[in-house]
Design brief:
single chain, mainly alpha, flat
């Protein structure tokens, strides 16, 4: 008599709770994305109507880039959640790509005049580690064909063709 997770009421209930929680997170993330887009529009509007009219400083541009990338990160998290709902798996490649995007956002908005060299080196180390990790994940053979995926393709199906 083997253990069958499908028949265990505790595991079934826990899985149901997790799926309901992920659905709630999808709804909340949709609201965060909409709010983020509205915030980007509002900040741009406010900055463009301040004197000098219709002119953005470099600082304004970088903070706007940061806001755009924050919304893009939220969209990537939304994608992670929807893939989990569809396939019941966590797509490591997409999680790492989201992490790289978050690191890129941090690098874009850093004020290098205010940072110590140690902080810059630590950030470079994180970028390098995440990049190597992402490259290694991308090099993993496809589970169906046994061939490594092309580096410019993002397989959101989990490699099983579904």
């Amino acid at each position: 008599m083997g253990f069958e997770p499908q028949r265990d009421p505790l595991l079934r209930g826990a899985q149901r709770l997790i799926l309901m929680s992920v659905r709630a997170l999808v709804v909340l993330m949709t609201l965060v994305i909409a709010w983020g887009v509205a915030d980007v529009i509002w900040v741009l509007y406010e900055r463009l109507r301040e004197p000098p009219l219709m002119l953005l400083t470099i600082s304004d541009i970088f903070s706007t880039f940061g806001a755009f990338i924050a919304v893009m990160i939220a969209i990537e998290i939304f994608e992670n959640l929807t893939i989990y709902l569809r396939q019941n798996v966590i797509e490591v490649e997409l999680v790492m790509a989201t992490g790289l995007m978050a690191i890129a956002r941090k690098v874009i908005v850093l004020d290098y005049k205010e940072l110590s060299p140690e902080y810059v080196w630590a950030t470079a180390g994180v970028v390098l580690a995440m990049s190597v990790g992402y490259w290694l994940v991308k090099r993993q053979p496809d589970r169906v064909t046994g061939h490594a995926q092309p580096s410019d393709a993002v397989d959101v199906t989990g490699g099983d063709g579904t």
